[in-house]
Amino acid sequence: MVDGIERPLDVLNNSKGKEVLVQLKNNRQMVGTLLAFDIHINVVLDNAKEVVDGENKRNLGLTFLRGDTIIFISPASMAK
Predict the structure, then answer these.
(1) Which residues does residue 3 pair with via DSSP β-bridges, in sequence order?
(2) β-bridge partners, 56
(3) Domain range holding 27?
(4) Contact status, residue 8 vs residue 25, Cβ threshold 8 Å
(5) Looking at CB atoms within 10 Å, which of 10, 28, 33, 61 has the fewest?
(6) Tens of pLDDT, residues 44-76
(7) pTM of the prediction?
(8) Total number of domains constituting the chain
């Protein structure tokens, strides 16, 4: 157990309200503030930005990402 993390969803719970990096199946990355998620790992990001080659490509604002399109989610502080 690391910092109260016992289950995979604990990482997401601890990341609510914080910036996360989301890698999608279509080789796209999104960065935004994690607002919510469900058991299917559908996520809602605020201030979402599409990232290409480490640079912001476009701002998307409030965004819903379907769980079956996500490869991984990482706290942005750990991704840098």
Answers:
(1) none
(2) 51
(3) 8-79
(4) no
(5) 61
(6) 999 999 998 878 889 999 999 999 999 999 987
(7) 0.85
(8) 1
- At residue 64, φ and ψ (nearest 5 deg) are -105, 130
HSE value, Cβ hemisphere, 13 Å, CA-based, for 47: 8
35 contacts: CB under 8 Å, gap ≥ 6: 16, 17, 44, 45, 46
Q: Is residue 30 part of a domain?
A: yes
- What is the rounded CA–CA span in Å between residue 36 and residue 39? 11
- Give pairs for 42-51: CB < 8 Å, separation 24+: 42/66, 42/67, 43/12, 43/67, 43/70, 43/73, 45/20, 51/21
Q: Three-class SS of residue 78?
A: helix
At 18, which CATH number?
2.30.30.100
Specify if 31 maps to a domain.
yes
Domain annotation covers residue 27: yes
